[in-house]
Design goal:
heterodimer, A: mainly alpha, 3 helices, 57% helix, elongated, B: mainly alpha, 4-stranded mixed beta sheet, two-stranded antiparallel ribbon, 23 helices, 62% helix, globular
């Protein structure tokens, strides 16, 4: 049930800079999808650009890649939830 | 719930869970009393926190130039060390009040956790068990009564989170300012509070980006202003000692080991906390508690893998876990639909069984002594630590602090043997643990881990210290873990010889004397 505070909140992106705007589940999903995929390729790029490094993708990188994929997946599944406040 | 058919099994199991968690509290109090009366270093580096307090009581900064005598500096923020400084004026240098302060902070954190759960659920019993669960965690228990700043930081963070969780949504500006001020205080107690600050700013941004940016700008401005004042007042040493010298190597095996241990010990409260966080994410609104839990678990868990870090880096996430799991249990108990359904029977079992199982999985106690000896014997608990203590976590995980056992009279006697040797030494003495020099009334010379950090960061000179070692100017050098920079250890090995070993609290203190004397 929405309380009095939530009753005047909006997730309309046009009112992003207003004091009544709140992030929607869709917008949060998009943020997380961008952060997750961006970080995933960023971590992979460490190996591409750091050509002198030995050992390939180590345990820390593997864990970080898994984490970024989870973040991206959560983001993807939040997008269909639409304008509900996050 | 009281009027239902399942009240008796629920109450019975809750009673047993309460007994188990209250027993954990009893062990924690006994451990605290044991340490508060112990006059020497218990955990590595504890003594240097006392040195910081002594310096503050003399109105001196602990952020000093390590290239000149006494080569001492600290990499910890000031707040925790300032708080007990007045006690130095009254009682003189002692570990007692810093340890007492930290333990009281731990108890207060449990009270704040209970309050947060009660405020949202009005379930007194669950709120009580949520607070007790915090103290029962192995990670919290063995850090609670140390002269260390970590758990005071968690107290300040927890109060800040509980205040902000309501104040931001209700637009109560004074309380928002108070909450953010407490977060700054936590950050100047220990730098790790930055993770909780990230959680707060993220959550505020989710709720309202405009207000989050405005409050966040004020928050950052105050934090940075204090930082600049400290840097200027210490001629740049604050920056060098607490920031440059605070970047340590990362060990993935330590991170994974601690993460697995954390999951194993806390699973029964972690699972409901994670499920409730996912519920809020997909079906409700994310609370500040859930965001705090998620971010401190992930970032704190990663940070725990750095050199010098350890299990204490999970304590903020454990406080958050206790609040989130308490809220879900309390709200499930309050659910009118569940009151009338067959699922109630499952709930009746799950809530108290989770606390009971958690209490058992985090069990630790001495296995000897007039009180705990018979209890351990009755429960058929065998010691797995130092032959006199049981810890369900054991000491086998890299980064898990090898502490939690009680000290003995023999430890005190051996500590004073070390003090006697220092007092009878003809000249200055370097001791890797500061307490012996403090008790002996000698200068505390250097802080080994700080020298090491500066050396690895490439900002340590050390010529004067090396020259004094090479000229045999130290009557004794006492090593325990050899945390000094490599050049210092090499100079000691070339110019000094090991002459004596005294074991105290399970650690060997090796006495090195000048080889040519």
């Amino acid at each position: 049930m929405a309380n009095s505070e939530e009753s005047y909140e909006t997730t309309d992106i046009k009112q992003f800079a207003s004091t009544s705007f709140t992030i929607s589940k869709r917008l949060l999903g998009i943020f997380l999808l961008i952060i997750g995929t961006g970080s995933f390729f960023g971590i992979l790029a460490i190996d591409i650009f750091d050509v002198g490094r030995q050992g390939g993708i180590g345990p820390s990188q593997q864990a970080a890649l898994a984490l970024t994929l989870i973040v991206a997946l959560i983001g993807l599944t939040l997008i269909p939830l639409g304008d509900k406040p996050a | 719930m009281r009027a239902s058919r399942v009240a008796w099994p629920y109450n019975g199991l809750m009673f047993v869970a309460s007994i188990v968690l209250l027993f954990s509290l009893g062990v924690a109090i006994a451990y605290a009393v044991n340490l508060i009366t112990f006059p020497f270093d218990y955990d590595q580096g504890e003594g240097f926190e006392l040195v910081d307090t002594i310096l503050f009581s003399q109105f001196q900064w602990p952020y000093q130039n390590t290239d000149s005598y006494p080569f001492y500096s600290s990499n910890y923020p000031p707040l925790f060390h300032i708080l007990p400084a007045p006690f130095v004026w009254i009682f003189g240098p002692s570990y007692a009040y810093g340890r007492l302060l930290s333990f009281i902070a731990t108890l207060l954190t449990a009270v704040v956790i209970s309050y947060a759960v009660y405020r949202d659920t009005h379930q007194r019993w669950i709120a009580l068990l949520s607070g007790l669960a915090y103290i029962s965690s192995n990670f919290v228990y063995h850090n609670a009564p140390l002269f260390r700043q970590h758990l005071t930081m968690v107290l300040l963070e927890t109060i800040a989170i509980v205040v902000l969780a309501q104040a931001f949504q209700k637009r109560e500006n004074k309380l928002i300012a108070l909450g953010l001020g407490l977060l700054i205080a936590a950050g100047y107690t220990k730098q790790l509070a930055a993770i909780s600050a990230v959680a707060v700013l993220v959550w505020m941004f989710l709720r309202n980006p405009r207000r989050a940016v405005l409050w966040g700008a004020a928050f950052v401005a105050v934090g940075v202003a204090i930082f600049v004042v400290l840097t200027v007042a210490t001629s740049g040493e604050w920056w060098r000692q607490t920031i440059i010298a605070n970047v340590n190597a990362f060990n993935p095996f330590q991170m994974f080991g601690l993460a697995l241990l954390w999951l194993r010990l806390h699973a029964l409260l972690l699972i409901p906390a994670v499920l409730y966080t996912l519920y809020e994410l997909y079906f409700s609104r994310l609370s500040l508690y859930a965001v705090w839990f998620g971010i401190t678990a992930i970032l704190g868990g990663i940070a725990a893998g750095t050199w010098g870090a350890g299990d204490s880096y999970y304590t903020s996430a454990i406080a958050a876990m206790c609040i989130v799991s308490g809220r879900v249990f309390g709200q499930v108990g309050n659910s009118p639909r569940l009151r009338q359904s067959a699922a109630k029977a499952v709930v009746v079992l799950i809530i108290p069984m989770a606390y009971l199982g958690y209490g058992v999985s985090t069990l630790k106690l001495p296995t000897e002594g007039p009180i705990f000896g018979p209890i351990a014997s009755a429960l058929s608990i065998e010691p797995n630590v130092m032959g006199r203590h049981f810890d369900s976590a054991t000491y086998d995980v890299l980064g898990y602090a090898n502490i939690g056992h009680f000290t003995t009279r023999e430890d005190v006697r051996n500590g004073y043997r070390i003090v006697d040797l220092i007092q009878n030494a003809d000249g200055p003495v370097i001791s890797e643990d500061a307490a012996f020099s403090i008790v002996a009334g000698k200068d505390v010379i250097t802080n080994p881990t700080q020298l090491r950090n500066l050396y690895l960061a490439g900002v340590w000179e050390g010529a004067e210290l090396l020259k004094m070692i090479e000229n045999d100017q130290f009557a004794l050098i006492i090593l325990r873990a050899s945390f000094f920079p490599t050049p210092v250890l090499e100079a000691i090995q070339e110019n000094y010889s090991p002459t004596k070993v005294i074991t105290m609290n399970g650690f060997d203190y090796v006495f090195w004397s000048p080889a040519n004397k």
